[in-house]
Amino acid sequence: MRTKTDAGTDSDARARAPGHRLRVGWGRPRGARHRRWSRLSSGCVALCLALGLGVAVAQDYPRRPVRLIVPFAAAGTADLYARFLATRLQQALGQPFIVDDRPGAGSLIGTDAAAKSAPDGYTLLVMSNAHTVNESLIRAKPYQLMRDFVPVAPIVSSDLVLVARNGLPVKSVAELIQLARERPGGLTYASSGPGTPYHLAGELFKAMAGVPLVHVPYKGSAGARSDLLAGQVDLMFDSVTTMREQVRAGKVRALATTGRDRSAVMPELPTVAQAGVPHYEATIWVGLMAPRGTPAAIVHLLNLQLSRIVTDPDVVKAWQTEGGVPLTMDEPAFERYLTADIAKWARIVKVSGATPEQ
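Predicted structure:
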Protein backbone atom coordinates (compact mmCIF):
# COMPACT_ATOMS: atom_id res chain seq x y z
CA MET A 1 0.00 0.00 0.00
CA ARG A 2 1.30 3.45 -0.88
CA THR A 3 1.16 6.10 1.81
CA LYS A 4 1.10 9.88 1.39
CA THR A 5 4.76 9.82 2.27
CA ASP A 6 5.38 7.23 -0.44
CA ALA A 7 3.43 9.30 -2.94
CA GLY A 8 5.42 12.35 -2.07
CA THR A 9 8.65 10.40 -2.47
CA ASP A 10 7.60 9.07 -5.89
CA SER A 11 6.65 12.59 -6.96
CA ASP A 12 9.96 13.98 -5.84
CA ALA A 13 11.76 11.14 -7.61
CA ARG A 14 9.95 11.87 -10.87
CA ALA A 15 10.77 15.55 -10.52
CA ARG A 16 14.45 14.67 -10.17
CA ALA A 17 14.42 12.12 -13.02
CA PRO A 18 16.43 13.08 -16.13
CA GLY A 19 14.29 14.74 -18.78
CA HIS A 20 11.40 15.39 -16.43
CA ARG A 21 10.26 19.04 -16.36
CA LEU A 22 8.81 20.30 -13.13
CA ARG A 23 5.67 22.35 -13.72
CA VAL A 24 5.36 25.28 -11.31
CA GLY A 25 2.15 27.25 -11.78
CA TRP A 26 2.04 27.09 -15.54
CA GLY A 27 0.49 23.64 -15.96
CA ARG A 28 -3.20 23.38 -16.58
CA PRO A 29 -4.97 24.43 -13.35
CA ARG A 30 -7.53 22.07 -11.89
CA GLY A 31 -10.74 22.54 -9.88
CA ALA A 32 -10.94 25.61 -7.68
CA ARG A 33 -7.58 26.81 -8.92
CA HIS A 34 -8.87 26.64 -12.48
CA ARG A 35 -11.89 28.75 -11.56
CA ARG A 36 -9.73 31.34 -9.81
CA TRP A 37 -7.43 31.42 -12.82
CA SER A 38 -10.35 31.97 -15.16
CA ARG A 39 -11.73 34.82 -13.07
CA LEU A 40 -8.30 36.43 -12.87
CA SER A 41 -7.77 36.10 -16.61
CA SER A 42 -11.22 37.53 -17.35
CA GLY A 43 -10.61 40.42 -14.97
CA CYS A 44 -7.27 41.24 -16.57
CA VAL A 45 -8.80 41.16 -20.04
CA ALA A 46 -11.67 43.40 -18.91
CA LEU A 47 -9.28 45.85 -17.25
CA CYS A 48 -7.06 46.00 -20.31
CA LEU A 49 -10.08 46.57 -22.55
CA ALA A 50 -11.41 49.28 -20.23
CA LEU A 51 -8.06 51.04 -20.10
CA GLY A 52 -7.72 50.80 -23.85
CA LEU A 53 -11.21 52.12 -24.46
CA GLY A 54 -10.67 54.86 -21.88
CA VAL A 55 -7.52 56.05 -23.58
CA ALA A 56 -9.29 55.97 -26.94
CA VAL A 57 -12.22 57.99 -25.53
CA ALA A 58 -9.88 60.58 -24.02
CA GLN A 59 -7.86 60.87 -27.23
CA ASP A 60 -11.07 61.57 -29.14
CA TYR A 61 -12.43 64.07 -26.58
CA PRO A 62 -13.98 66.53 -27.14
CA ARG A 63 -15.64 66.11 -30.51
CA ARG A 64 -18.31 68.79 -29.97
CA PRO A 65 -18.94 71.78 -27.64
CA VAL A 66 -18.80 71.20 -23.89
CA ARG A 67 -21.25 72.89 -21.53
CA LEU A 68 -20.11 74.35 -18.19
CA ILE A 69 -23.14 74.75 -15.93
CA VAL A 70 -22.67 77.56 -13.40
CA PRO A 71 -25.47 77.35 -10.81
CA PHE A 72 -24.84 80.92 -9.60
CA ALA A 73 -25.72 84.40 -10.82
CA ALA A 74 -23.84 85.93 -13.76
CA ALA A 75 -20.86 88.18 -12.96
CA GLY A 76 -20.23 86.38 -9.66
CA THR A 77 -16.91 84.79 -8.73
CA ALA A 78 -17.74 81.32 -10.13
CA ASP A 79 -19.08 82.80 -13.38
CA LEU A 80 -16.00 84.95 -13.94
CA TYR A 81 -13.57 82.09 -13.40
CA ALA A 82 -15.72 79.76 -15.50
CA ARG A 83 -15.54 82.14 -18.46
CA PHE A 84 -11.79 82.47 -18.14
CA LEU A 85 -11.35 78.70 -18.03
CA ALA A 86 -13.77 78.17 -20.92
CA THR A 87 -11.52 80.27 -23.15
CA ARG A 88 -8.36 78.44 -22.07
CA LEU A 89 -9.92 74.97 -22.37
CA GLN A 90 -11.16 75.79 -25.86
CA GLN A 91 -7.64 76.84 -26.84
CA ALA A 92 -6.17 73.64 -25.37
CA LEU A 93 -8.74 71.11 -26.62
CA GLY A 94 -10.03 72.66 -29.83
CA GLN A 95 -13.77 72.74 -29.08
CA PRO A 96 -15.95 75.49 -27.57
CA PHE A 97 -16.57 75.36 -23.82
CA ILE A 98 -19.86 77.21 -23.27
CA VAL A 99 -20.79 78.77 -19.93
CA ASP A 100 -24.43 78.12 -19.03
CA ASP A 101 -25.53 80.23 -16.03
CA ARG A 102 -28.42 78.57 -14.17
CA PRO A 103 -28.83 80.33 -10.82
CA GLY A 104 -31.62 79.80 -8.33
CA ALA A 105 -32.64 78.00 -5.14
CA GLY A 106 -29.22 78.35 -3.57
CA SER A 107 -27.48 76.62 -6.52
CA LEU A 108 -29.90 73.65 -6.52
CA ILE A 109 -31.48 74.33 -9.94
CA GLY A 110 -28.31 74.32 -11.98
CA THR A 111 -26.68 71.56 -9.94
CA ASP A 112 -29.68 69.26 -10.39
CA ALA A 113 -29.61 69.91 -14.13
CA ALA A 114 -25.95 68.91 -14.22
CA ALA A 115 -26.60 65.79 -12.12
CA LYS A 116 -29.27 64.64 -14.59
CA SER A 117 -27.08 65.23 -17.65
CA ALA A 118 -25.51 62.43 -19.66
CA PRO A 119 -22.22 61.28 -18.08
CA ASP A 120 -20.25 61.68 -21.28
CA GLY A 121 -17.95 64.59 -20.46
CA TYR A 122 -19.99 67.13 -22.42
CA THR A 123 -21.74 68.63 -19.38
CA LEU A 124 -19.67 69.74 -16.39
CA LEU A 125 -20.55 71.52 -13.14
CA VAL A 126 -18.73 74.61 -11.91
CA MET A 127 -19.12 74.31 -8.15
CA SER A 128 -17.98 76.06 -4.99
CA ASN A 129 -18.05 75.49 -1.26
CA ALA A 130 -21.71 76.50 -1.45
CA HIS A 131 -22.16 72.89 -2.52
CA THR A 132 -20.29 71.43 0.43
CA VAL A 133 -22.33 73.69 2.73
CA ASN A 134 -25.61 72.56 1.17
CA GLU A 135 -24.86 68.91 1.94
CA SER A 136 -25.78 69.60 5.58
CA LEU A 137 -27.82 72.78 5.23
CA ILE A 138 -30.33 71.41 2.69
CA ARG A 139 -31.10 67.76 3.35
CA ALA A 140 -34.04 67.41 0.95
CA LYS A 141 -32.11 67.94 -2.27
CA PRO A 142 -32.79 66.14 -5.56
CA TYR A 143 -29.11 65.14 -5.67
CA GLN A 144 -26.24 64.27 -3.34
CA LEU A 145 -22.90 65.78 -4.20
CA MET A 146 -20.61 62.79 -3.62
CA ARG A 147 -23.15 60.27 -4.89
CA ASP A 148 -24.17 61.95 -8.14
CA PHE A 149 -20.89 63.61 -9.18
CA VAL A 150 -17.24 62.73 -9.56
CA PRO A 151 -14.57 65.31 -8.60
CA VAL A 152 -12.58 66.67 -11.53
CA ALA A 153 -10.34 69.41 -10.13
CA PRO A 154 -10.23 72.46 -7.87
CA ILE A 155 -9.55 75.74 -9.60
CA VAL A 156 -9.04 78.73 -7.31
CA SER A 157 -9.62 80.01 -3.80
CA SER A 158 -10.09 83.56 -2.56
CA ASP A 159 -10.38 85.34 0.75
CA LEU A 160 -13.50 87.25 1.67
CA VAL A 161 -13.52 90.73 3.13
CA LEU A 162 -15.80 91.95 5.91
CA VAL A 163 -17.15 95.36 4.93
CA ALA A 164 -19.46 97.85 6.66
CA ARG A 165 -21.71 100.48 5.13
CA ASN A 166 -20.54 104.04 5.27
CA GLY A 167 -22.17 105.66 8.28
CA LEU A 168 -21.96 102.62 10.54
CA PRO A 169 -19.89 103.90 13.49
CA VAL A 170 -17.22 101.20 13.47
CA LYS A 171 -13.66 101.15 12.19
CA SER A 172 -12.51 97.74 13.43
CA VAL A 173 -13.77 94.27 14.20
CA ALA A 174 -13.51 95.01 17.93
CA GLU A 175 -15.75 98.07 17.54
CA LEU A 176 -18.19 96.05 15.44
CA ILE A 177 -18.47 93.37 18.12
CA GLN A 178 -19.08 95.98 20.79
CA LEU A 179 -21.75 97.78 18.73
CA ALA A 180 -23.50 94.51 17.86
CA ARG A 181 -23.71 93.59 21.55
CA GLU A 182 -25.14 96.99 22.36
CA ARG A 183 -27.82 96.56 19.68
CA PRO A 184 -29.07 92.98 20.06
CA GLY A 185 -30.60 91.91 16.77
CA GLY A 186 -30.11 95.38 15.38
CA LEU A 187 -27.24 94.90 12.90
CA THR A 188 -27.86 93.22 9.55
CA TYR A 189 -25.57 91.43 7.14
CA ALA A 190 -26.32 90.68 3.50
CA SER A 191 -25.41 87.59 1.53
CA SER A 192 -25.96 86.24 -1.97
CA GLY A 193 -28.41 83.69 -0.57
CA PRO A 194 -28.91 80.98 2.04
CA GLY A 195 -26.22 78.35 2.04
CA THR A 196 -23.66 80.39 0.12
CA PRO A 197 -20.14 80.84 1.53
CA TYR A 198 -21.01 84.48 2.19
CA HIS A 199 -23.95 83.41 4.37
CA LEU A 200 -21.95 80.82 6.31
CA ALA A 201 -19.04 83.26 6.78
CA GLY A 202 -21.52 85.49 8.62
CA GLU A 203 -22.93 82.61 10.66
CA LEU A 204 -19.44 81.50 11.60
CA PHE A 205 -18.63 85.06 12.70
CA LYS A 206 -21.81 85.23 14.79
CA ALA A 207 -21.01 81.95 16.50
CA MET A 208 -17.33 82.60 17.16
CA ALA A 209 -17.65 86.28 18.15
CA GLY A 210 -20.81 85.68 20.16
CA VAL A 211 -22.77 88.51 18.56
CA PRO A 212 -26.39 88.72 17.33
CA LEU A 213 -26.63 89.61 13.64
CA VAL A 214 -29.64 89.39 11.31
CA HIS A 215 -29.07 87.61 7.99
CA VAL A 216 -30.63 89.28 4.94
CA PRO A 217 -30.45 86.87 1.98
CA TYR A 218 -30.52 88.04 -1.64
CA LYS A 219 -30.77 86.26 -4.98
CA GLY A 220 -27.15 86.76 -5.92
CA SER A 221 -24.30 88.98 -4.79
CA ALA A 222 -25.21 91.93 -7.03
CA GLY A 223 -28.38 92.78 -5.11
CA ALA A 224 -26.70 92.34 -1.75
CA ARG A 225 -23.80 94.54 -2.82
CA SER A 226 -26.10 97.26 -4.16
CA ASP A 227 -28.09 97.48 -0.92
CA LEU A 228 -24.89 97.60 1.14
CA LEU A 229 -23.62 100.51 -0.97
CA ALA A 230 -27.01 102.21 -0.58
CA GLY A 231 -26.88 101.78 3.20
CA GLN A 232 -29.87 99.44 3.36
CA VAL A 233 -27.89 96.76 5.22
CA ASP A 234 -25.03 97.16 7.67
CA LEU A 235 -22.49 94.50 6.77
CA MET A 236 -21.43 91.97 4.17
CA PHE A 237 -18.83 89.27 3.67
CA ASP A 238 -17.87 89.53 0.01
CA SER A 239 -15.12 88.32 -2.30
CA VAL A 240 -11.93 90.37 -2.14
CA THR A 241 -11.84 90.15 -5.92
CA THR A 242 -15.19 91.89 -6.44
CA MET A 243 -15.29 94.24 -3.42
CA ARG A 244 -11.76 95.63 -3.58
CA GLU A 245 -12.58 98.50 -5.95
CA GLN A 246 -15.59 99.58 -3.86
CA VAL A 247 -13.31 99.77 -0.83
CA ARG A 248 -10.68 101.77 -2.69
CA ALA A 249 -13.36 104.16 -3.96
CA GLY A 250 -14.49 104.80 -0.39
CA LYS A 251 -17.99 103.46 -0.96
CA VAL A 252 -17.71 100.98 1.93
CA ARG A 253 -15.37 100.48 4.87
CA ALA A 254 -13.28 97.31 5.01
CA LEU A 255 -12.69 95.88 8.49
CA ALA A 256 -10.82 92.60 7.93
CA THR A 257 -10.19 89.72 5.56
CA THR A 258 -11.18 86.16 6.32
CA GLY A 259 -8.20 84.01 5.37
CA ARG A 260 -5.62 82.37 7.58
CA ASP A 261 -3.04 84.98 6.54
CA ARG A 262 -3.31 88.57 5.41
CA SER A 263 -4.53 89.04 1.86
CA ALA A 264 -1.87 89.80 -0.74
CA VAL A 265 -4.38 92.16 -2.35
CA MET A 266 -5.36 94.06 0.81
CA PRO A 267 -2.36 93.56 3.12
CA GLU A 268 -3.21 96.67 5.12
CA LEU A 269 -6.17 94.82 6.65
CA PRO A 270 -5.84 92.36 9.54
CA THR A 271 -7.52 88.99 9.32
CA VAL A 272 -10.66 88.49 11.39
CA ALA A 273 -8.62 86.15 13.57
CA GLN A 274 -5.95 88.81 14.12
CA ALA A 275 -8.62 91.44 14.80
CA GLY A 276 -10.20 89.68 17.75
CA VAL A 277 -11.88 86.40 16.74
CA PRO A 278 -9.14 83.76 17.16
CA HIS A 279 -9.07 80.84 14.70
CA TYR A 280 -11.71 82.38 12.43
CA GLU A 281 -11.22 81.41 8.78
CA ALA A 282 -13.67 81.39 5.87
CA THR A 283 -12.74 81.46 2.19
CA ILE A 284 -14.51 80.82 -1.09
CA TRP A 285 -13.20 78.35 -3.64
CA VAL A 286 -14.29 77.13 -7.05
CA GLY A 287 -13.90 73.68 -8.62
CA LEU A 288 -15.16 71.42 -11.37
CA MET A 289 -17.19 68.20 -11.15
CA ALA A 290 -18.76 65.84 -13.67
CA PRO A 291 -21.89 63.65 -13.53
CA ARG A 292 -21.23 60.26 -11.93
CA GLY A 293 -20.35 57.74 -14.63
CA THR A 294 -18.28 60.13 -16.74
CA PRO A 295 -15.34 58.11 -18.15
CA ALA A 296 -12.36 58.28 -15.83
CA ALA A 297 -10.05 58.96 -18.75
CA ILE A 298 -11.97 62.13 -19.62
CA VAL A 299 -12.00 63.24 -15.98
CA HIS A 300 -8.24 62.71 -15.79
CA LEU A 301 -7.66 64.58 -19.06
CA LEU A 302 -9.64 67.57 -17.73
CA ASN A 303 -7.76 67.46 -14.43
CA LEU A 304 -4.42 67.61 -16.25
CA GLN A 305 -5.55 70.43 -18.53
CA LEU A 306 -6.89 72.51 -15.63
CA SER A 307 -3.70 71.96 -13.65
CA ARG A 308 -1.65 73.21 -16.60
CA ILE A 309 -3.89 76.27 -17.01
CA VAL A 310 -3.93 77.41 -13.38
CA THR A 311 -0.18 76.89 -12.90
CA ASP A 312 0.75 78.92 -15.97
CA PRO A 313 2.96 81.74 -14.58
CA ASP A 314 0.92 84.44 -16.32
CA VAL A 315 -2.31 83.04 -14.87
CA VAL A 316 -0.82 82.76 -11.37
CA LYS A 317 0.36 86.37 -11.51
CA ALA A 318 -2.93 87.71 -12.89
CA TRP A 319 -5.06 85.85 -10.37
CA GLN A 320 -2.92 86.82 -7.40
CA THR A 321 -3.29 90.51 -8.27
CA GLU A 322 -7.05 89.95 -8.03
CA GLY A 323 -6.90 87.99 -4.78
CA GLY A 324 -7.20 84.52 -6.29
CA VAL A 325 -4.92 81.62 -5.33
CA PRO A 326 -4.73 78.82 -7.96
CA LEU A 327 -5.50 75.34 -6.62
CA THR A 328 -4.22 72.04 -8.01
CA MET A 329 -5.00 68.49 -6.83
CA ASP A 330 -5.35 65.16 -8.56
CA GLU A 331 -8.78 63.54 -8.54
CA PRO A 332 -8.36 61.44 -5.34
CA ALA A 333 -6.92 64.40 -3.42
CA PHE A 334 -9.78 66.63 -4.54
CA GLU A 335 -12.27 63.97 -3.40
CA ARG A 336 -10.65 63.92 0.06
CA TYR A 337 -10.72 67.72 0.14
CA LEU A 338 -14.45 67.78 -0.65
CA THR A 339 -15.22 65.17 1.99
CA ALA A 340 -13.34 67.15 4.64
CA ASP A 341 -15.04 70.41 3.63
CA ILE A 342 -18.48 68.81 3.87
CA ALA A 343 -17.66 67.69 7.43
CA LYS A 344 -16.32 71.15 8.36
CA TRP A 345 -19.42 73.01 7.25
CA ALA A 346 -21.72 70.42 8.80
CA ARG A 347 -20.24 71.33 12.19
CA ILE A 348 -20.70 75.05 11.51
CA VAL A 349 -24.30 74.60 10.34
CA LYS A 350 -25.07 72.65 13.49
CA VAL A 351 -23.46 75.14 15.87
CA SER A 352 -24.88 78.23 14.15
CA GLY A 353 -28.39 76.87 13.68
CA ALA A 354 -28.39 78.11 10.07
CA THR A 355 -31.36 77.11 7.90
CA PRO A 356 -32.04 77.20 4.15
CA GLU A 357 -34.41 80.12 4.73
CA GLN A 358 -32.10 82.29 6.83
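Summary: The chain is about 45% helix and 20% strand.
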